[in-house]
Amino acid sequence: MxxxxxxxxxxxxxxxxxxxxxxxxxxxxxxxxxxxxVALQVLLLQHGGYIxxxxxxxxxxxxxxxxxxxxxxxxxxSLLKLLQDEAMWQQTLQLIREKGLETDFETVxxxxxxxxxxxxx
Length: 121
Known about the structure:
By secondary structure, the chain is α+β, with helices and mostly antiparallel strands. The chain folds into two domains: 5-79, no CATH class; 85-120, no CATH class. It has helices at 5-20, 35-47, 74-84, 86-98, 105-120; strands at 25-26, 51-56, 66-72. Strands 1-3-2 form a three-stranded antiparallel β-sheet.
């Protein structure tokens, strides 16, 4: 399962808005056609420590998992900030591609650190 950072940006943004309204972001807040992929990305975000969420895996093949995103963690806020900074995000992707690496959470963190270190040198 690979992170889809475009979809993750949407999920984190929606979660932040819903949480600021005092509500959880739930699977019912998404279109049925996108639920399966959204649920997978939510699971990745939860396991990566980017969100606090209740996640109930599906019990049968009748549909995607149920989830409720309670909030973003510090790491989640940092990731969202990166995804919303188009220039920094494009630099990050370019560095990852140049090095021929997989675009996953750890690679993104390392690439961002390298870019920032380069800016500070």
